Amino acid sequence: MSVRQSLLAILDQAPCYGYQLRGEFETRTGGTWPLNVGQVYTTLDRLERDGFVTRDGADVEGRVRYAITDAGSSEVRGWLAAPVVRQQVRDELAMKLAIACTLPGIDVPALIQTQRTATLAVLQDLTRTKSSQAAPASPSDLAWSLVVESMIFAVEAEARWLDHAEATIARAARSGAVAAVEVPRAARRIVAEGGAR
Amino acid sequence: MSVRQSLLAILDQAPCYGYQLRGEFETRTGGTWPLNVGQVYTTLDRLERDGFVTRDGADVEGRVRYAITDAGSSEVRGWLAAPVVRQQVRDELAMKLAIACTLPGIDVPALIQTQRTATLAVLQDLTRTKSSQAAPASPSDLAWSLVVESMIFAVEAEARWLDHAEATIARAARSGAVAAVEVPRAARRIVAEGGAR
DNA sequence: ACAGCCATGTAACTTGTTACATGATTTT
DNA sequence: AAAATCATGTAACAAGTTACATGGCTGT
Lengths: 197, 197
Description:
Two copies of one chain form a homodimer. In chain A, strands 1-3-2 form a three-stranded antiparallel beta sheet. Chain A folds into two domains: 3-81, Orthogonal Bundle (Arc Repressor Mutant, subunit A); 92-192. In chain A, helix 2 crosses helix 3 (37-49) and helix 6 (108-131) runs antiparallel to helix 7. By secondary structure, chain A is mainly alpha-helical. Chain A has helices at 2-11, 18-28, 37-49, 70-81, 92-102, 108-131, 139-174, 185-194, and strands at 16-17, 53-58, 64-68. In chain A, a hairpin with a 5-residue loop joins strand 2 (53-58) and strand 3. Chains A and B meet through helix 1, helix 4, helix 5, helix 6 and helix 7 of A and helix 1, helix 2, helix 4, helix 5 and helix 6 of B. Chain A binds a DNA duplex through helix 1, helix 2 and helix 3.
């Protein structure tokens, strides 16, 4: 939903043609998220279908110009005014760990350790990348900083959560509530025959 | 990609029928992510198409049983062994803020404030929910805790990032690199009349 | 009889995404 | 002349998601 909205927001500033939109998007996001041109055109088709943009005839150079409609403008205003609410996000890692805890024979601490290594590597990579950039000196630099920082914060949170989750799981295992860690050999068979309720 | 993998991982434990899979998924994730039954069947179709599961004849009760294939098992092993790597995630909020900074006439601090309010509300909601749950006493409770905690960590990171981003933007504005914040009076009116509610 | 859950499915749709075809223009 | 970039598109697919149709069965 966000590429779509971003392109619309850019079109709200001025009519553009497709190829130009990609450039605008990429500079405005600091080149952090390369965007396939094809996606611009498919997105424009869908925006046109939904009545948010119209083909505004042709450019001086003969390029196909798209312009925003009133409905489109109002959509942009709504987007900017309303906060992003991530309802019920199915976080891939959380889901994986939750599921893994219910599977017999899975070495969950090892899984966490593997993940931690990977996560910390990403974090280190991001921090190194970040430190190679000085203070933002252009709008594009600012966008780049914002995006990279958001990634850093998210990855840091992931790392912290991994530690926390490890402790939570260990505690649950100690209190005997959960069988996930020490696996009875037989459990595998039991699950196989009955399945679950 | 994660619902699909989770269902496959469950099937790796025992053959199941569709409706049962939903139940398994929901209990194994602590009921945090309700899953439409229809999605189970579409996912099963796709898994079958990809050769990861087969229809294993019928149940004692006449229900359609699905079983994992060797390819499916190997897929599950791969999934569990490999860390989750979120490459190039297009974070909706980061994108929105980055774009917003490049739009003339947008009151970015206000946007951030609105977002912060919403984010903190979500956070408070999550913490309240969390505190109503004591120590996990069952596998389902553990899953629930893990998921809720992951959400809390993510939302906290979002809140922290908002503060950080605010500072970054202010610094960029002070250093004169970016025009986004000080808005030409005229532009402001144009945007304002549309009404950010 | 009716409500409600169990159970299987299908059709339709969303956004995101890539790979490719096709030319025009520009650069080397 | 060849290579690269500009520019517009199409076809196809992924995964997620919902709404609906269709029965069977159970409890009130």
